[in-house]
Write a structure and sequence with these properties.
about 10% strand, TIM Barrel, 8 strands, alpha/beta, eight-stranded parallel barrel, binds zinc ion
Length: about 350
């Protein structure tokens, strides 16, 4: 079993100029598919689970699935990351479960919907960093509120996120504030707001620089060249998956995600973690629709789910190749949590980030 922390994984990504897709896990099949894709492409694995995924599966089931994934593929470094922790307790319970990395999203208050004050964000995130780093565990923070630059609306997905109008400056991470935030908290990775949002309905047209502000990422990277940046809501929402759903009984309005070229542009300027959830959901559910429509008498659950799992393997393998992490798994020697804790205690990473 080769568990790895986010810090070590993204340091390797940064040194070798690649990005890590962070795939959201919602059930057994999504986890199997992500692992199979990593195995096929010799990629390190970044698995993440949100609070809603933890609630859906139950912590015990999730914990054992994570461990089973790492044990089944002992040659692949596997990072287990908590997506959008809302408070210290949530992050602590994830650390106790064996997560090697947690996100403390202090851009929202603990209710996960009210945009917070900057000082609150610094205080909450710092308290998680303090505990996590003594255990060798990595922390991702977030500055800026995710939402649409097209409509000015915050976005709510799976019960997470602000619902309502926001000013443009709230929807974009301020580069100077990002410098202060990283120095004040000591986070290992920073999620930034640049116009991406969770879910399928990110943009009503193919995004340009006005509504997907890649220049903000470039400015932040210039000021913080050693901080790993994270793009949330980075699914591409591919047309073929929208068509697959709509041609088989679905009815989703035309929408646009984050083009792969923009993600690749981000990777060139410090984006190391690229969060992908929607594309997996669409591939799996679209395939299930297709199977059920073509096999109206079938109720064989395995037959219904299998084609979707295959489609998710293909999608994830393609992301691994495009983002450059394919071929990297056997080049990494994971450090243990206690080795990481020693490095934090020695101040190695903080001095790099500041
Ligand atoms: Zn997110």
């Amino acid at each position: 079993m080769a568990l790895i922390t986010l810090r070590q994984l993204l340091d390797h990504a940064s040194q070798n100029g690649y990005g890590m897709p962070a795939f959201n896990i919602t059930n057994l099949e999504t986890m199997q598919a992500v692992m199979e894709a990593a195995d096929k492409t010799n990629s390190p694995v970044l698995l993440q689970a949100s609070r809603t995924a933890r609630n859906y599966m139950g912590d015990k089931f999730l914990q054992h699935m994570f461990m089973a994934a790492a044990e089944t593929y002992p040659h692949l470094p596997v990072c287990m990351h908590l997506d959008h922790g809302n408070e210290l307790d949530t992050c602590m319970s994830a650390m106790d479960m064996g997560f090697t990395s947690v996100m403390m999203d202090g851009s929202l208050e603990a209710d996960a919907k009210t945009p917070s004050e900057y000082d609150y964000n610094v205080a909450e995130t710092s308290s998680v960093v303090e505990v996590a780093h003594t255990r060798g565990i990595s922390v991702e923070g977030e500055l800026g509120v995710l939402g649409s630059l097209e409509t000015g609306m915050g976005e709510k997905e799976d019960g997470h996120g602000f619902e309502g109008m926001l000013a443009r400056n709230q929807l974009l991470t301020d580069p100077d504030e990002a410098c202060d935030f990283v120095a004040a908290t000591g986070v290992d990775a920073l999620a930034v707001a640049c116009g991406t949002s969770h879910g399928a309905y990110k943009f009503s047209k193919r995004p340009n620089g006005d509504i997907l502000a890649m220049n903000v990422i470039e400015q932040i990277h210039e000021k913080l060249p050693h901080t790993h940046l994270v793009m949330h809501g980075a699914s591409t929402v591919p047309q073929y998956l929208q068509d697959l759903i709509n041609q088989h009984g679905g009815d989703i309005p035309q929408t646009f995600g984050v083009p792969l070229e923009e993600v690749e542009r981000g990777i060139k300027c410090g984006v190391r973690k690229i969060n992908i959830d929607t594309d997996i959901r669409m591939a799996l559910s679209g395939s299930m629709r297709e199977f059920l429509l073509n096999n109206r008498s079938s109720f064989d659950l395995r037959a219904i789910i299998k084609p979707g799992r295959k489609r998710v393997v293909e999608l994830c393998a393609k992301r691994n190749e495009l983002f450059g992490c394919a071929g990297m798994a056997d080049k990494i020697k994971p450090l243990s949590l206690s080795q990481m804790a020693d490095r934090y205690a020695a101040g190695i990473f903080r001095s790099k980030a500041a």
